[in-house]
Write a structure and sequence with these properties.
homotetramer; alpha+beta; Chorismate synthase, AroC fold; 5-stranded antiparallel beta sheet; 10 helices; 30% helix
Chain lengths: 361, 361, 361, 361
């Protein structure tokens, strides 16, 4: 109940602090017989890894994953899968001077108030390094859902600051997304985004943005009707990612301005007698349950709180202090957040796939 | 796991279909000794009730709540509180002709696909009537949190279609909200909103909007750092309400356009040595944990799917059919959704209050 | 987390106090399409009902069950099934004089200490009347498991006081059990048991006993290997029944005296190539997972605490008081506990059936 | 839901196979600020360790625990505590010849049937090596409960085969228990027990027994009234330990033979006005809730399934095979199970302590 576990049947528990012994996860409830290797996991971790390009933090972290249980002769056995990365690039002395300071819009103050104690080295448990365990677990979910059901997860950077692409999310490919360091599939604006991020870095500042997610080939029937609507659980999954401030499914906030006669997705009978909708303002989910159309959602990220610019804040005694961060941080977290969004989407769909299967014989 | 329960320690399970025997809830985990009466609950139910004003549906439902367990001599005893309303205004024959039709953007199609069977009378379990149980449970949470901790929940209609108020949410009072049938605290635009809703009704159409929520006097420390961030659980709570398509905490999607140097909420020491933030782009939650500032969030509602305008859809055999709804429905669901938003917010805060208390001695 | 819910996927929440408004349950997660009627439920409730024979309490409670949600046109729809019995035979004045007294070995003292408040009418929530909701939920589970999988649940009174039957539990039939008011399938000793119970009643005393349960035609593979072993969850299910003090699976405490070479159940290949065991000291469960043999268990019930004999106890101020119960109570609870044992067994198996199905594709 | 997690608020998840990469646990929900070190944990692990005396298995496993998260500067921080032991003494070739054989009364057959795949090296996940994670987690719970509440956990071997001590469990001390390799506090029979165990070992056989547990200084009010009775959760905890076949609380199966007038624990007012009971047939728990008396329970262990004696069993094709185990195994598991019983008792009490605190303000 301390909120370190996500999911009901595909249960992901993450553990670890930024500069503790290790970070990782335990995945419980994974179906049996899935072929899985450290390499499968590593691929997504490398997309999340710091230092992967000139627009991310320059910190180098190799982040080599080990699978320590739950896999035998290359296959899942139905027992808990523990995966972890030992922490290496630990330079706690970088953080020593921050131990009594509450950095603005970080979790320093709230952790201190909640627990009365905190691991102040690099954000401790509140560090985005925690998401490494999510990406590892998500890689398993993605592999299963791809192989067994053909479900595909795509996420990409749609907006950085006020630069936004208008590409049709249904047509975007994985190759387009991975073709550039921003992970934006619109080559016309990628350079502008890179320029903006580099400008922001030089100013010692940071910038936010929006990631769009599309999930293709989802079977109808996933999601529970009341509290655990698929949209509600996807929303929670995304809002649990560090720095996320907003979530939209389908039409989102734009839908609030519309009339029912515009917004209603009219049904028709398509190829092979499959019932489809003409529009998809519902974002692939109706009454909390997937309807077989692409699931479409958007996730708003604030600019990351760590900036080099001087800021005035307070210390644990309430005294004003000047803060000038010196670590190597991300001016824009979105390119590295793309695999995290995919992972949380995959974990959510996986869990609902198993839940649906349990009740509907 | 069928998603009819919300919360970990303050657990709300709702039951009931629109035209079944009864709708209601079981609240488990309520602290002991809270004075509670049917009247306390009824007050909020009346704000959710159909037929309460000219801009809601004209269906009359008295919705008298009964408390059937868990309360003894006017006080909660720590045992499950079962509350219910027997269904009365049941006119299933109104729906008989809809039993084989998939109404656009309703849950008819997805329920049928998921379960192979559904209660087609008035939406069955997918009916907004299910939220009656949430409002009843929320009334208990609100009363507890108000009396023991002084926490106040305010929600109001901020936007209907493209008419939007810019009032400062921190200054809005409950009286202002309840002073008019829209539940919008900005008297300058209320009339315009009413006009729009009436126009939409005449056209046989519906319109969406945005509800803003503010939670005042929340203690610091509520929320869990990783998956069960207070913002993530509030988001899930809101996204589980029928017709909701988007959720923002604090700066939301606007925050995505900002720089870190603008967005960071600088700390300072305020009255009585209390550490405060100068701005509140965080929306009262940092690192998933409440920081003592007002919690601010926004919830986007799509226009309700039931409209009188003729629509072309398909039946269960995939044949095209004309649909012209004749029931008495809401042109704009937002005024009645205000107490639902408050209820879900209160249930979420209550649950996290108990969770925080359990771990932090 | 207040312990009013049992099960992970087939979730049973009971509510209600002995003399409150109603007692009942919400069953969430029941598979779709099961035919169910109030009559199906009532049959088991009647076996649990007070006043059913001369050896139970003479209190008359009709206990007519209503199904108020989750069933449509006679079938389960996948939504929560709420069932309840309105309380009628409420004579709280009988209990008024007990409101400040801690009856020996009842829950009066511990409820008061835990909650500081309690519904003192007839034991309130601690009353065995709470088990009515369990029996109703169990009736659904039994019906599903019988129809879909051919699983059969048998429970019978094996021992009353020191009178014990040695019949082979594998050969006992439902008809034998229901052929007499003790629910003991051994006609040779039934009369002795009845005599003992009547003697005990005349003495104003009560007597304990043992119920044996047998579950037949359980598929292999139910149960989870570590904490949620099928034996552990069955044990918890039984130990949660009021007055239960012990639980054995298979060889139980006798097994503690044996050698491995005696106790090991040797495998052999039986009819149709099915792998069987020669003996069944394991009680049908190995490593926490069902092996296809009959599941065999025993449940020890203490003598019920309510007796007519005078006892010295204390009141809420710690003063000595004389207690002489006058209500109409059971001298031996076992005959009425048989359907409760069956119900808890069925709920447990049902839950594990769904859990197994979720993970093992 | 795969049953690898125990507890609601103090949540223990174990992971790992006998011969995989590592075994260990994640403890989530531990209160903040508890001083904890690897040494604290190691002490109990050493009591569980193979090879600790001449009557256990002679396998040497050092089992050095590492704490990899959740502890900072020697104190718990409220974040998940991951602890593990890397597997070293891996000789899977010992097991290679067993990979297609179903050992009698082991989990080989049921795992194969459930999952269709299994890690056959040394029992894999079904190995008692899994309990290492439980003991580590239990050490934390014991330390917390001792320091904050003075609660003491004692478990000891009461019976080996048919040799049984009659010492008064309330008077037994930890020193007496640890004074000999059997962990039986009755010096008069310890030698007989050792002789029996050595005899059994020489015969290539194994023998079962009973462990008694006593929990002292438990506050009143722990346990939930209905399904999560403290006795039910303790029972489940014990029945989840490998080889356990029975559980009794208080009078247990003996209580079934008694009259209510004998069994009822009469209240009286003791020292400092504390309400006590004259007898303790309830075993410290009434209505599922602790009453402040010593909690007393008994746990029956079958003889371990691995024996050196030749047995006839079947392989995965159903063919008869001769089995003669050659590994180094325990003739009697009870001395090493004592810390496991203590650990599971401590985890259960800890969880209920936090649960009680959450609801009862």
């Amino acid at each position: 109940m301390s909120g370190n576990t996500f999911g009901q049947l595909f249960r992901v528990t993450t553990f670890g602090e930024s500069h503790g012994g290790a970070v990782g996860c335990v995945v419980d409830g994974c179906p049996v017989g899935l072929e899985i290797s450290a390499e499968n996991i590593q691929k997504d971790l490398d997309r999340r890894r710091p230092g992967q390009s000139k627009i991310t933090t320059l910190r180098k972290e190799e982040d080599k994953i080990e699978i320590l249980s739950g896999v035998f002769e290359g296959k899942t056995t139905g027992t808990p899968i523990m995966m972890m990365v030992k922490n290496k690039d630990a330079r706690p002395e970088d953080y020593e001077k921050l131990k009594d300071i509450f950095r603005p819009s970080h979790a320093d103050f709230t952790f201190q108030k909640k627990y009365g104690i905190r691991d102040w080295r690099g954000g401790g448990r509140a560090s985005a390094r925690e998401t490494l365990g999510r990406v590892a677990a998500g890689a398993i979910a993605k592999k299963f859902l791809k192989e067994k059901l053909g479900i595909e997860f795509l996420a990409y950077v749609e907006q950085v600051g006020d630069i936004k692409t208008e590409v049709d999310c249904n047509k975007v490919t994985s190759e387009q997304i991975e073709s550039n360091i921003v992970r934006c599939p619109d080559e016309k604006i990628v350079e502008k985004m890179i320029e903006l991020i580099e400008k922001v870095r030089k100013e010692g500042d940071s910038v936010g943005g929006v990631i769009r997610g599309v999930i293709k080939s989802v079977p109808t029937g996933l999601g529970e009707p009341v509290f655990d609507k698929l949209s509600a659980d996807l929303g929670k999954a995304m809002l649990s990612i560090p720095a996320v401030k907003g979530f939209e499914i389908g039409s989102g906030f734009e839908g609030a301005k519309m009339r029912g006669s515009q917004h209603n997705d009219l049904f028709y009978t398509g190829k092979q007698g499959k019932i489809r909708t003409k529009t998809n303002f519902s974002g692939g989910i109706q009454g909390g349950i997937s309807n077989g159309e692409n699931i479409q959602f958007r996730v708003a990220f604030k600019p990351v709180s760590t900036i080099r610019k001087e800021q005035i804040t307070v210390d644990s005694k309430g005294q004003n202090v000047k803060l000038e961060a010196t670590g190597r941080h991300d001016p824009c977290v979105l390119p590295r957040a793309v695999p995290i969004v995919e992972a949380m989407a995959a974990i959510t769909i996986m869990d609902h796939y198993l839940r649906n299967k349990a009740q509907n014989l």
